[in-house]
Amino acid sequence: MSRRSTKNPRDAVHHPVFARFYARFSVTADLKGGIAAHREELLSGLSGRVIEIGAGNGLNFAHYPGAVSEVVAIEPERNLRRLAAGAALRAEVPVDVVPGTAEALPVKSEAFDAAVASLVLCTVRDLPRALAEIKRVLRPGGELRFFEHTLATGRGLATAQRAVDRTVWPLLFGGCHTARDTVGALEDAGFELGSYRRFRIPEHGVQLPTSPCVLGVARRSAVVDRSNPPH
């Protein structure tokens, strides 16, 4: 498939100020904050067709292993999508950057061997619907690799996260909600949880409301109920 980027004048998500900030901050965080190592861990061992949800400016693309035959990268924000298209041209695996939202993925059901969600589930408007869509597009037994903000296990920090989410934080940071229970949401969506680990960014030092993260694997069941077939 050819590598391309599509612009839509009526994008469902449009955060031009945040997009410019994120494009700069994310590169620094990768180089100096250790995020690049987490991306490498997230994508290690993937193969076949992969869909990436909320690709941002495409920083994951350089970490996909050669066994990946194609990446379809969904990004709703046009400024980040343009940057992702440039990153796709430099990637060592085929990457196709397309517009779309997590709640309505513009791809066929059961079309992918794996899905990747990297610091994006905190921003989607409807998390249960987004997870249902990811489950729909995965083949039976396909896996979801996730690296996400998550609700802290400590009461004090969790309270701070909920307070931050009620302020202007989501407006300033592209819809980010720091207090979402990522693992619980995956279980509620019917995913089978594999291994995962919790950590903070940075892993040492002051712990801010945005610090707690979780990285791991979840799977769509290999047994599919055909009484309600995917569309």
From TrEMBL:
InterPro entries: Methyltransf_11, SAM-dependent_MTases_sf, Thiol_S-MT. GO terms for biological process: methylation. It holds the Pfam family Methyltransf_11. Keywords: Methyltransferase, Transferase. Its EC number is 2.1.1.-. Residues 52-145 form the Methyltransferase type domain. CDD domains: AdoMet_MTases. One of its GO terms (molecular function) is methyltransferase activity. This is Class I SAM-dependent methyltransferase.
